[in-house]
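Sanity check. The docking grid for cytidine-5'-triphosphate depends on where the pocket ends up, so I'm generating a full predicted complex first rather than guessing from homology. Inputs follow.
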Amino acid sequence: MLKGKNIVIGVNGGIAVYKVVDVVSKLRKLGANIDVIMSKAAQEFVTPLTFQTLSGNFVVTDMFEEPKSWDVKHISLADKADLFLLAPATANIMAKMAHGIADDMISTTIMATRGHILIAPAMNVNMYEHPVTQENVEKLKSFGCEFVDPVEGRLACNYVGKGKLASPDAIVDAVIDYFKKEKDLEGKKVLVTAGPTREAIDPVRYLSNKSTGKMGYEICKMARDRGAHVTLVSGPTHLDKPDGVDYVGVDTAQEMYDEVMKKSEDADIIIKAAAVSDYRPESVFDRKMKKSEDDLSIKLVRNKDILKNLGMNKKHQILVGFAAETNNVLEYAKEKITTKNLDFIVANDITDKNAGFSGDTNVVTIIDKDFNCESYGMMSKYEVAGKIFDKIAKLI
Ligand code: CTP
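Predicted complex below; grid placement will be based on this.
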């Protein structure tokens, strides 16, 4: 089931290390290739030989140990990891990750990895519930890390509460789930719009909005990571173009309309995360406008509603819209599902400090065409993208 998957496991100090022995054994039986890195403290609980025997690979214990092959180990393991599993994850390693501290083999490898990171914490309940640990957990989530939450029970320190490492089966299931959904969009063509549009007033001025494009770009990355062929039609943003995605840059709503209409026929899934300007100045001055003593009025005319047009011409495509609102969020979002003929809409309240245009997190409600609502707490925008594609996967 996990044949060919490279999983690097960072084992930190804690009595729960013994449970990770079972995780390694189970993952290997499922066909995964496992590399284990042990912290110094972890070796106080279980010897590297145990993990070496079960994983079938040398266990890395030290940044500067005699190399077994001529490569820079923390980089080669980071590159190799399809998934980095951190178990048990202590408060200390999570704090280091959240603040960019890389001072041993596990923290340097994690910082260099571009693979997905799954974290299974285990610690004393008071440490786990400490605001600083919770803040670090939220921060790591906003970076795209996923968690297998600790469970409640009697802890090794004799406290009762949440802090026990999740069971080996739960951790293995989370790993399987990650790889299962990993490529569920293989063969699908996904068209995404992102960012704002700009409507020129004259050669130096324009009307626009505060969209940064972050949500749409994370949707592209998620679709790509799950195997889709992705085309991004983007308004101007300061973001790097996502790797492995066809990119078309546009400025105005009309340009976005033209590009989207050209590409929509071929798409299986269309997600309109762009904040399109509904109006544009009726006429654009061809020279920079000069001020006068009088007030100025600029007549605005309506732009085409791209999503509504897609909805009217919809054939086989799954159509997803966004509704970024400041008030009556659900009511407005529901109206848009109907008027734009959507399969579902992703609504958010942009007055929420965790859900704005510029942040890395969002707080959304997904509403389907029967007006069933599913609300989620604060998540990274990449995780929100995951929820959107989980929903789409059920519709396909
Ligand atoms: N949208 C679009 N073309 C437009 C306006 C909006 O494709 N000219 C899309 C957006 O990409 C988004 C959805 O429609 O997916 C809702 O956009 P939003 O700006 O929230 O709503 P509007 O339909 O423009 O309505 P209003 O501004 O009155 O809220």
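Relevant for the grid: Residues 253, 272, 274-276, 278, 303, 305-307, 321-324, 332, 336 surround cytidine-5'-triphosphate (CB under 6 Å).
Also worth noting: The two ends are 23 Å apart (CA to CA).
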